[in-house]
Every structure is written in C-alpha cells, then in structure tokens.
C-alpha cells in the first residue's frame, strides 16, 4: 500500500507518465545571455548533436535506468514527468555509478532547461543532495565537495572530501552561505551507501519555494528561494518564469569539454526507483501473495519455465511468493529457478555484499524462503568492491560443491569487473560464471 497523501509516479514496468527529451541549455538567468554564448568551449552546433544523441531510458529489474546513447556519445538528456506539480514531497531511491553526474529537477519548465536542480554529482568535485539554479541564476549552493576514495589498485571504493589542491570545481564558503540549512561532510559520508541504493526525500513548497533534501534520513541541504541572495538571482523574475507549478525530471549529464568522461564515465548508469514511502523494504507496485499468484499460475500455463528473483526483492518476500507458486502450480524439476545475492538484507557482516560470510548465510536464507533444496542459477547482483574477488569466487564455488546451486551467474557490473571475477575462478580452479 502507498502511504496516505502519496501517489506512485512509477509503475515498476514501464515509463508511462514520463517522456524522454534531449539535453538542452538556455539562458543563465531570466533575460540573461544564453549558456552556449557564454561558454565558448561548447561547439556552436551543440543542440543539433544533442537532439541526435538523446539519453536512453529503460526499466530494468523494476527500476529506471538512465545512460548516454550511444555509449560515450558525450550527450545526455532528461526523463521528464508528463504532469506538473505545485507543492509536494517526493520520495525516491538513487543508485549512481562512478562517475555519473545526474540530478532531480524541480519546478522545471517543459520546454526549457529552467528549474531548480537537486544535484547528484557523483564524480570528482561533485556534490550530492544540494542545489543548482538551471536558468534561474546558475547559483551553486553546496556545503561541501566530494571525490572518490580509492584502494591501492586505484579502484573507487567510497566517497571522501574533495582535495582543494586537485579540485576541478573548488568549494567556497560563499556556496554554503546560500543554504539555510546544511549537513557536515562527516555526517553525510557516514550515511551515504556506496554502490547501493540511497533514499532521497525532497520537499518543495511555496511560490518562491523552500526546498529541503534528506538522504538516508539525514537533512543534507535546504534552500529558500524567497530569501536567497546570489549574483544574477532575481526572485520575482524567477517566479514569473517558473510559476508555482512545474515538472519533475531526472538527468543524464553530457560530457563537457572541461570534465569529459570524468563527468559521465563510459558505460555509466544511474538507477532510480520510486519506493513505497510506508516502508523501505517494499515498492508501491509490489503485489501480495493473493494478487501475485494468478500471474505466476498463468506463467506456468504459458510454458514459462525460467523464473528469476533476488533475495533483496521486497526484502525476501518475492522469493517466498515464487517458492509457493512453484509448489502450487508446477514441479520443481520443471522450473529453472534463479536468484541473486549482494543487496542489504540486514545490518551486520553477513547481511550484504559478497564476503564468504554473506554468501554462505544468504544462500541458506534464499533456499529457506524459496522452499527448495537447490538453486539452478545463483547470481551475484552487483560487484563488491570491498571483498577480494578470490574470496567471492571460492565461496560461490563452495555453494555449488555443497549442492545448493547448479550454476553461477552475474547480473549487472562493468565488463572489467566480470572479467576480473572470471579470471579469479580460472586461476583458483573454481566454478565459473555461465551467464551475465
């Protein structure tokens, strides 16, 4: 069920209610110069190329995925709501790759880039959960800047404070002064979930709106456009431009000549999910057992024999429903049953990731929920940067040798990550992946 007062913006299976549009620029502020006239490093025919290479948006595993198209084109785009909204509170989850410069637009104009953007600049010198004034002054209101924390091999494994000596977009006290409330960087780093889902709550209220962003229950930033003082920001002119209603939009950024692929990496994705605000463990499109069973019964009747789920889907209840349906409508040997491991099931070392403890614990938990003695295809849901690949592959091999899984697979990761895991299996003489 959806919490009273909220309505779902995403049905979990399609992009109904949303439209994809190319990346575009416009005026820096009302009646001001055009961005492309001021920033000379952009090509004069930018918009022609942007229109020909819009971002791609799809629904994968029940979530919205945004990416450049074709990969490495350097051009982005928006997924914009068909409806407009006045005052609202928006709840969603985001899981961006590194680097992926993205965001959520509030009060966005349908036919221009103007609006208030909540930044999710998941890249060097970026900021998350803060604000930029697209076409309304180009103010950059942030309390800190971030960079990747890397392991000895140079692989990004988390976030840290941006180093001013190497920053490509230096933080200043004036940027923080534009905010009426803001978090300390230490508190932000303590709650941010690297390579995982992060819960956003965004409130936008007022004619000259006051907007507040919480991430994983931490108030990260608040800005009051009625009181904001910033160069070229004119509150009355902005109200006349935006009005009291506007669209919500998700962004895939372009690769400008300054940052290049450090702004949006080759093959990078950002994933979005509009969850049920009543619980962090389920989504608004989820069906209970009674509602789900007719679809599962019809799948059997239509001869669909490959069934895929994951431990983290609806916090384990998806596996329970699938397991019951197999017993009711089919024979276990007639179904190829697949599930996944990686996502967070509980706090503690065995609750998430691909450590030996997590894999062995979660394999047993999935078997119990599915009500079966073996899994046909046991898949890792994501790459775990915190666990040695040898530990992961040896543990998965032991699950197979114990008869708890027939085959191994992988769900979603970079090609080099998949190759690294596969190579570890070859070197160790362990079970290889057969699918991705």
Query: What is the overall shape?
Result: globular
- Strand arrangement, major sheet: 2-3-17-5-13-14-15-12
Report the radius of gyration as a whole number of Å: 23 Å
Low-confidence parts, pLDDT < 50 over ≥5 residues?
275-281
The amount of helix comes to: 10-25%
Residue-averaged pLDDT, rounded? 92
Q: How many angstroms does the end-to-end distance come to?
A: 33 Å
Question: Structural class, judged by helices and strands?
Answer: alpha+beta
Helix-strand layout with pairing:
Elements: E1 18-22, H1 35-38, H2 46-52, E2 56-60, E3 63-67, E4 77-81, E5 88-96, E6 100-108, E7 115-122, E8 128-134, E9 140-141, E10 146-150, E11 156-161, H3 173-177, E12 181-182, H4 185-191, E13 198-205, E14 210-215, E15 218-224, H5 235-242, E16 247-252, E17 270-273, H6 289-301, E18 306-308, H7 317-329, E19 336-341, H8 356-370, E20 375-380, H9 389-401, E21 405-410, H10 415-428, E22 433-435
Helix pairs in contact: 6-7, 8-9, 9-10
